[in-house]
Amino acid sequence: MEFMSSLQNAFDDHKPSLFELLSEQQLSGLIPPSLRYLLAVATHRHPRYLLRVLNSFDELYAVLMLVVERHYLTTHGGGFTENFYGLKRERVLQIKGGEAPRARLGAPGLMRETLQLHERDVWNNLAVMVGLPYLKRKLDESYDVHAPQAAIIGPSYNRDFLPRDATIRQRILYHYKWFLRNIYPSVNAAYYFSLLAFNLAYLFDNSKYSSPFLWLIGIRIRRLSEADHRAIALAAQPAATSPSHPAARPGQASSIFNPLTFASVIFPRLLASLKILLPTSIFALKFLEWWHASDFARQLSKKATEGLDLPPPIISGLPPKSVSRNTRDLTQVSGSFSPTSAPVNTVSLALPPSKDDQSTSPPTVSHIPAKHSPPIGATTLLPIHTVPAPKPKTSSLCPICLHPIQTPTSAQTGFVFCYTCIFKWVDGRHERQIAFMEGGRETEEGWDEDYDEEEGRGDEGKDEEKGGSREGKWESGKGRCAVTGRMVLAGTDGLRRVMV
After folding, report:
1. Number of H-type helices and E-type strands within the chain
2. Cβ–Cβ contacts within 10 Å for residue 221, how many?
3. What is the mean pLDDT of the chain?
4. Residue 423 burial class via C-beta count within 10 angstroms: exposed 0-12, middle 13-18, buried 19 and up
5. If DSSP codes are grouped into helix, strand and coil, which group holds residue 398?
6. What 8-state DSSP symbol labels residue 294?
């Protein structure tokens, strides 16, 4: 990998190859998702304490890296992952060509002091190393949330509009979404194109900068020299106590809880220990990757679970099926109907009936199909308009439009729909919802036709049969799953595409 850079730079041994820089960037990009994953696993165990931390992960990670990167820039002259690869950052000489090879060979210590980062250079590097990736992550997340909706739905997407009496916040949010949908794709493409151009120029020794942002702040990346290693080792040695300031007696300002002791001794050592933690964590992740991919772990887990008798799974979450009116008439005539009796076409887990109960049971009524009753809203106490759950034969069809699923999208309940269907349903603008609320009757396997009369609303049920509006009598299902009627957290933003 270093053959190309060695050909172009026969005399410059401190210039790293492009492949070293790319490896360092990949390692730096793997740290945030790894920490987020570990935090998400811990949040499942302790959501009360860690949920807010997980929701603000980007901001907390930016603050943490600001502290870590500033420590490594001031003490080692490079970033956290750059120091792992033996790299540093230095200023470029303001001379023709930017190089002084004779001075570098004759006085390496003096050249190091001349090119080391000043306080202003440290903050410029922090803006490039911490601020720019944070801004890029937030823009990418916002683009993934807002832009695909308009791209898939097309011209009919008119959810975002600016009212006349809009507040300042509404105006800023409206223009921000417009920027994401129209301008940000071009800005993102220019960003990656500039990185590619500088990488190619750096590879063929036409530029000293591997990134356009390093060119803007006048910083380049170099390998650590012998003078750098001596300076770092000297800075890591503990300071000797002078005769005028003798060592403190036990218990006198030497506790780890003392702010001065913590800031001057404990905190730098904690940050320096990250150099050991990084290779250890990489080894642990590679070991776990091998463990889950190897056949040895699979056979070991199989032998461990051979003697376990697992109970059958219990399926819950779908609205229960109700007994139809004709079935209840038959059971009431026989005198064996009770409010807690199991509905028809369902499996009961109760004990089998006795001989006396079997003798008084009515004739078989399983041939009468029982339609399911709608779920009831917890706040409005109104029935919620939903669609029947898909069956095994119709699992490839959208439960809403009953056509093959286009752009599969799942709600938080696990059911998969067409993206346009579930988006409009959660938004309350689907044609099936509008027709139902205006008084139209479901032509598919809908609700029990006598539902309104059974609930004591015979007159209202007659009005609906005549085509009356269901406003105030039913919920349209807006903001809910189209099958279960459960609320979809975050509305349309809570929908997730399914990769098939």
Report:
1. 23, 5
2. 24
3. 74
4. buried
5. coil
6. S
Q: For the sheet containing 408-410, what is the strand order?
A: 416-418, 408-410, 496-497
Distance of CA 356 to the CA centre of its chain: 59
Question: Alpha-carbon torsion 214, 215, 216, 219, what sign?
Answer: positive
Nearest to 8 by CA among 178, 204, 157, 288: 204
What is residue 145's predicted lDDT score, i.e. its pLDDT?
A: 81
- Sign (positive or negative) of CA dihedral 157, 163, 166, 168: positive
Rounded distance between C-alpha atoms, residue 307 and residue 269, angstroms = 49
CB contact at 8 A, 140 and 147: no
Q: How many CB atoms lie within 10 A of CB 441?
A: 12
Q: Which has more confidence, 228 or 254? A: 228
The contacts of residue 119 (CB under 8 Å, 6+ apart) are: none
Residues 6+ apart with CB under 8 A from 384: 374, 375, 376, 377, 474, 475, 477, 480, 485
Tokens 């069956």 belong to residue: 391
Q: Which amino acid is at 77?
A: G
List, as own/partner pairs, every contact residues 272-276 make where C-beta atoms lie below 8 angstroms and the sequence separation is at least 24, other chains included: 272/236, 274/68, 274/80, 275/83, 275/84
Which residues are within 8 A (CB) of 108 and not within 5 positions of it... i.e. 6 or more apart? 225, 226, 227
Tell me which H or E stretch contains 497. Answer: strand 496-497
Structure tokens at 491: 């509305």
Dist CA 450 CA 327 (whole Å): 13
Rg (CA), the chain: 34
When pLDDT is cut at 50, 70 and 90, the band that residue 5 belongs to is very low
The identity of residue 100, as a single letter, is: A
**What is the residue type of 475?**
E
User: Given this model, what pLDDT does residue 127 score?
Assistant: 94
Residue 431: name the closest of 476, 397, 372 by CA: 476
| Side-chain-side CA neighbours of residue 387 (13 Å) | 24
Tens digits of residue pLDDT in 146-204 = 776 655 555 555 566 777 888 998 889 888 888 988 899 999 999 999 999 999 999 99
CA distance 186 to 334: 74
